[in-house]
Amino acid sequence: MRKPFLFAYTLAATLGAWSLVAQNYEFVIYTLVTLVLVTLIYLGDRKFTFSPAVLWGFNLWLVLHILGGLWPVNGSVLYSLVLIDLVGEPYSILKYDQIVHTYCYFIIALLLWRVVSTVRLDAPQWLLAALTVLAASGVGGMNEIVEFSATVLVPNTNVGGYENTAIDLVANFLGACLAIPFFKGEEANIPSQ
Fold first, then answer.
1. What are phi and psi of 123, to 5 degrees?
2. pLDDT for the residue numbered 117
3. Would the CA dihedral through 66, 71, 74, 76 be positive or negative?
4. How far is CA 16 from the centre of its chain?
5. Residue 93 three-state SS
6. Calpha distance 173→118 (Å, rounded)
7. Average of pLDDT values for 158-187?
8. How far apart are CA 76 and CA 34, in angstroms?
9. How far is Cα 181 from Cα 184, in angstroms, rounded to an integer?
């Protein structure tokens, strides 16, 4: 098993243990989702050989995610922290949460680009890029379903309301779009099999 995956599974175990100790049952749910995500990427890596830089970037997201949900800040968690007050309530832009969503879907888009570009190298690059951004946005939509499920299953979460969900979806899309200039470079960094 490649080192980034060993680290990712270690981070997922850390997330689970910290969530249980903190009695943060919302993040116990996210631990299970994280384990599924790491496993899907691990299985995908066997076919598509993701670049080490992107895999370590994924691990950085895991660290940011763990800290975001479990690190206490001002009676809440880091995810709720407004970093720069660009737009006030009810949107609360720019929060740590929005930065992490943008970064996460930047990484997800790079992972998906490897899959999409490998499967259909003869398609126009703009079409592959558009499909990759849409696929990453779809993964982001699934993430919001998981967050909604957490609000149904766990009485007190830090998920937020409708505005938070909509802003998360925009941040996910923005992150995926920001990855587009890196697609060609990422393609070149993949070792041949």
1. -80, 155
2. 87
3. positive
4. 17
5. strand
6. 22
7. 87
8. 22
9. 7
Residue at 67: amino acid letter:
L
pLDDT of amino acid 193? 37
- Secondary structure of residue 72 in the 3-state scheme: strand
Query: What are the b/e assignments for 44-66, b being 16+ CB within 10 Å?
Result: ebeebebbeebbebbbebbebbb
- Is residue 184 within 8 A of residue 113, CB to CB? The reply is no
- Residues 55 and 4 sit within 8 Å (Cβ to Cβ): yes
pLDDT by residue (tens digit) across 19-76? 999 999 989 999 999 999 999 999 999 999 999 999 999 999 999 999 999 999 999 9
Q: How many CA atoms lie within 13 A of 79 on its CB side?
A: 20
The token pair that represents 49 in the structure block: 């050989």
Average pLDDT over residues 175-180: 95
- Residue in the block written with tokens 């994924």: 58
Overall residue count recorded for the chain in this entry: 193
Contact at 8 Å (CB) between 72 and 158? no
